[in-house]
Design brief:
about 400 residues; alpha/beta; Rossmann fold; 2 domains; five-stranded parallel sheet; globular
């Protein structure tokens, strides 16, 4: 079993709050993490129709059957369970970590928990494997493009299974459409929604243009906005907002779109080999998506907000990532494997604009060696995980 970094944060939260909610995309390992972290707790899934009907008919009696608490998978499928948990927690003054709730619908689970369990619950988002987790398990390949192409969904690294990534991603999309999207849009639009996901892949690593997406898919801009929210709520994509510190410059106000997993992204872009990826015009955008995804995982694994933006002014001057953590980091992402001086030019310009010694400039690149050159950290892709987690 591959150890999950998020386990430490889960134990931290469950040691304080009577209820902990775990969200994340389908197949990210939420159930495995909860069962491994709390082996003594009973587990039920509301994907099970019979269990769902029992809980729906009388939520309070259902919970009373588990006096020591339990893990409830896909909890959002029985909305009344949240009020019942609230009454149980308040009446019994439940100890920390009594109920662990998981779900693949971030919006529905968080909304139900926020409405009913405010002040009683904490949240943890679990994304697919972080690079550091696979490195610790000695599963990191020598070629970064091989790693990017495969993606990091846990089933693809299960030694007891032998999935071909291309087949697995096709099945994943089918399951996602039938179980997560169905009911949120008209059934007649399902094939159009599949095309929509494919078109969105072309925009990963770029500023969002809802009008362009609408034109390419053949739908309205309001529909694009609604469908993007579905992808975001189910952890298929993430929006990176523009930085608000203008430093005397007129800044763009448009977010950038990123896929959470590069394996799914490459599948949607019809890249079947590392050669396809290396020769594709989207290569730099895919590498940038990879780095942003690792940043998101590093923060979610410690149950912290991402606190990352990008800087771009109206003249086109851009820095890929501004990370406001314990210190402020300005990060550039490069698909190059060489530490060329030109790679740091934007960073040096940005640092000069800020005139703040506490802002650190770093370049995330695909080389094998991490080094500091003229006060700029060049961080090898193999060290991104440890670099992110230590900040």
């Amino acid at each position: 079993m591959i150890n999950r970094i998020a386990k430490k944060a889960l134990l931290r939260l469950s040691g304080q709050f009577p209820v902990v909610g775990i969200t994340g995309p389908r197949q990210s390992g939420k159930t495995t993490l909860t069962k491994e972290t709390f082996p003594q707790k009973q587990y039920v899934s509301f994907d099970d129709k019979n269990m769902r009907e029992i809980a729906t008919s009388n939520p309070s009696d259902f919970l009373r059957a588990f006096p020591d608490g339990l893990i409830i998978d896909e909890a959002q499928k029985v909305p009344d369970i949240f009020d019942a948990i609230k009454l149980t927690v308040d009446k019994e003054q439940s100890p920390p970590g009594k109920f662990i709730l998981t779900g693949s619908s971030q919006f529905r689970l968080k909304k139900n928990m926020s409405d009913s369990l405010s002040g009683r619950a904490a949240f943890l988002s679990l994304l697919p494997f972080a690079m550091q987790e696979l490195k610790n398990a000695d599963l990191l390949p020598d070629d970064p493009y091989e790693f990017i192409l495969k993606g990091q969904y846990p089933p693809l690294y299960d030694k007891n299974k032998h999935f071909i990534p291309d087949d697995w991603f096709e099945a994943y999309i089918d399951t996602y459409l039938s179980r997560d999207v169905k009911g949120k849009i008209n059934d007649s639009n399902m094939s159009t929604f599949r095309k929509f996901i494919q078109v969105c892949a072309v925009y990963s690593g770029h500023m969002l243009s809802m009008d362009s997406i609408a034109k390419n898919v053949g739908i309205t801009a309001p529909t694009v906005k609604n469908w993007l929210s579905i992808l975001e709520q189910s952890y298929i994509i993430h929006f990176l907002e523009p930085d608000t510190n203008n430093l005397g410059h007129a800044l763009v106000k448009t977010p950038k779109l990123y896929f959470i997993d590069t394996g799914l992204l490459c599948h949607l872009l019809r890249m079947e080999s590392t050669k396809d990826l290396l020769l594709d015009r989207m290569k730099d955008a895919v590498v940038e998506t990879f780095a942003v995804s690792e940043l998101l995982k590093a923060r979610s694994n410690i149950a912290k907000k991402a606190n990352i933006t990008y800087f771009r002014d109206q003249k086109g001057f851009e820095v890929d990532i501004i990370a406001d953590w314990k210190k402020t980091f300005a990060l550039e992402i490069k698909s190059s494997a060489d530490t060329e001086a030109i790679m740091s030019s934007n960073l040096r310009k940005y640092l000069k604009m800020r005139q703040e010694t506490q802002t650190k400039g770093s370049i995330l690149y695909l080389g094998d060696i991490s080094a500091t050159i003229n006060n700029i950290d060049y961080v090898s892709w193999k060290d991104w995980g440890s670099f992110f987690s230590s900040k």
